[in-house]
Amino acid sequence: MTPSHTPPQKSDALRDAASGVPIVEPIIVPIVELSSIALTLESGAGEVNILRGIDLKVAPGERIGVVGPSGSGKSTMMMIAAGLERPSSGLVRIAGQDLAEMDEDDLALFRRDRIGIVFQSFHLVPTMTALENVAVPLEFAGRRDAFDRAAAALDEVDLSHRSTHYPGQLSGGEQQRVALARAVATEPDLLLADEPTGNLDGETGTAVIHLLFAMQERIGATLLLITHDPDLTARCGRVVRMKDGRITDGGMPS
Ligand code: ADP
Ligand code: MG
Q: Is the CB of 11 inside a 6 Å radius of any atom of ligand 1?
């Protein structure tokens, strides 16, 4: 029997000395949590260890630059964070959700709602106009105002005057701005960008990055940006360094 003057303690939580009220620490769920990720692929010559034990935690709203030599595993790590590739072992949690528990359909819906991706080579649908390209994920999400939102997103990247043009009629910089509008139009929590300026000249690339950073801030997204450009990493809150399938620096928030 519990005497009424000593109520049972429900937890070991820290308590305020005067009032006895538990001190509640805010629990921040990382937007990206990769734990002991390995990826091993079979090749003709035997097994290839592409990722060899990746640990990465990213808090909501961070802007992370991912750097490392070509072939060090940057793109593969991003594909795993996007649920586009499954690791051989380890845990992938995005916004607190374990991607291993999702089937391909769940993953597609999860990406639709939470993740925006920009690739080096734009990946626009060549048979669709700029406006249609941006509207695709919004339509897929069942937004009735898909085309209005797409038009607003194209306006944000200063391409309203190109909305009826096809990718083949646009410059590289314009195509990447369309891809950016498409990635951000759904207001994802997580933006992934894999060398988004890699195919653009310096000035055009700078304009694309300027837009990317501005849109990230506007929607309050977390950004993982793979880049070789030190000017860009200088504008990131944290730099993650990769080498030979491992993170050598910057894997955890400071
Ligand atoms: P990075 O983006 O840092 O240049 P990647 O993640 O693209 O590196 O690739 C890491 C390594 O994995 C490279 O050696 C690459 O050749 C290899 N690799 C990536 N994807 C595959 C695949 N599907 N099959 C075989 N090897 C792959
Ligand atoms: Mg790459």
A: no
Phi, psi (5° rounding) for residue 27?
Answer: -95, 115
Measured CA to CA in angstroms, residue 11 lies from 22, 25, 79, 140 at distances of 9, 14, 40, 45
Atom 25 of ligand 1, nearest CA residue: 41
Domains of the chain: 32-249 (3.40.50.300)
Ligand 2 centroid to residue 115 C-alpha, Å:
18
57-94 burial, b at 16+ Cβ within 10 Å, e below that, comes to: ebeeebbbbbbbeeebbbbbbbbbbbbebebeebebbb
pLDDT computed for residue 1 by the predictor: 46
pTM of the model: 0.88
Gap from CA of 213 to ligand 2 centroid (Å): 20
